[in-house]
């Protein structure tokens, strides 16, 4: 049996482990006591935790993990919380069905539930077109500015959601039809140019004054029956206000020219065919709140 020769580090007098890298030797110092106590403590805590709490996984085919002396189960706790939340939502949903829109607005708890439910439904069904928070996009109305093509009241918004716009399968849908003045040859190109100049002038744009003057007569004959003599619109037929400088399909000359030439008769689904009554009400309350409501 060979004799063990200790390698002692001369400056410190501590035995080394025998490992050396680039002239640097590793001292064989004992671990700090505080570190050992913490390590022993974590081992003791782990053993106690495995006894008290469900922690030891079962082998395949032998059922669930150990339940522990405390009988705690996160899975069961979550299931109970979900069931409790489902019961609360069911009660609130039933209240929504029986409450009028005005009652929902005045009942703070019911309004908060409707707002939360409506925001969720909006994100799932409406935000694709109208954008998050109803900010809108070209071709899709902004719902956050309180400028409405149709009614902006709670009842009006609910009706629009229920029956849609130009949704042919619903006989009660909101319906209006703008003629394609150019495509259907109702006006000449020069006349369309004139009326576009006049329309842009209504919102304070710089235009060709001579063309706008000629367009005023065309507007009175062809457009005023829906948009009003002053261009302020008519919500009963979904005719937009042309004086507020808010444009669904763009407010540049080319955009307005294309609208007059080809017409823009967009479609919105009748959500009453897809969503339940409580969700429709919640959506109405949420959309109503985006622009401050009427």
Structure characteristics:
single chain; 294 residues; Cytochrome Bc1 Complex, Chain D, domain 2; elongated
Structure in a nutshell:
This protein has 294 residues and is mainly alpha-helical. It is built from eleven helices and two strands. Among the domains are: 76-165 and 269-289, Cytochrome c-like domain (Cytochrome Bc1 Complex, Chain D, domain 2, Orthogonal Bundle), CATH 1.10.760.10; 189-262, Cytochrome Bc1 Complex, Chain D, domain 2, CATH 1.10.760.
Total beta strands: 2
Helix/strand structural class: mainly alpha
Evaluate the radius of gyration.
36 Å
Average predicted confidence as pLDDT: 87
Could you please say which CATH topology of the domain at 76-165 and 269-289 applies here?
Answer: Cytochrome Bc1 Complex, Chain D, domain 2
SSE order, one letter for each helix or strand: EEHHHHHHHHHHH
Do you know the CATH architecture of the domain at 76-165 and 269-289? Orthogonal Bundle
The percentage helix is 40-55%
What is the CATH class name of the domain at 76-165 and 269-289? Answer: Mainly Alpha
Q: State the major sheet.
A: 2 strands, antiparallel
Instruction: Measure the end-to-end span.
Output: 99 Å
- Low-confidence runs of at least 5 consecutive residues: none
**CATH superfamily of the domain at 76-165 and 269-289, called what?**
Cytochrome c-like domain
Strands side by side in the biggest sheet: 1-2
């Amino acid at each position: 049996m060979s004799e063990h020769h200790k390698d002692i580090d001369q400056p410190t007098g501590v035995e080394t482990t025998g490992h050396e890298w680039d002239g640097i030797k590793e001292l064989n110092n004992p671990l700090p006591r505080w570190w050992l106590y913490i390590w022993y403590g974590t081992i003791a805590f782990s053993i106690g935790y495995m006894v008290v709490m469900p922690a030891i996984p079962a082998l395949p085919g032998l059922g669930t993990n150990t339940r522990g002396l405390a009988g705690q189960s996160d899975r069961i706790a979550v299931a109970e919380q979900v069931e409790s939340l489902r019961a609360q939502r069911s009660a609130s949903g039933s209240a929504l069905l029986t409450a009028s829109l005005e009652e929902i607005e005045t009942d703070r708890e019911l309004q908060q539930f409707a707002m939360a439910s409506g925001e969720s439904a909006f994100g799932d069904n409406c935000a694709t077109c109208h954008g998050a928070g109803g900010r809108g996009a070209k071709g899709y109305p902004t719902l956050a500015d309180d400028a409405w093509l149709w009614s902006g009241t709670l009842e009006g918004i609910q009706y629009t959601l229920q029956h849609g716009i130009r949704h042919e399968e619903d006989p009660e849908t909101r319906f209006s039809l703008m003629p394609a003045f150019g495509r259907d040859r109702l006006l000449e190109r020069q006349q369309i140019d004139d009326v576009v100049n006049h329309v842009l002038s209504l919102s304070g744009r710089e235009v060709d004054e001579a063309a706008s003057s000629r367009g005023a007569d065309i507007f009175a004959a062809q457009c005023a029956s829906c948009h009003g003599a002053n261009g302020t619109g008519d919500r009963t037929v979904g005719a937009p206000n042309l004086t507020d400088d808010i444009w669904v399909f763009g407010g540049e000359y080319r955009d307005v020219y294309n609208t007059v030439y080809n017409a823009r008769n967009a479609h919105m689904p009748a959500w009453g065919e897809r969503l339940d009554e409580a969700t429709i009400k919640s959506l109405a309350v949420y959309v109503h709140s985006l622009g401050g409501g009427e």
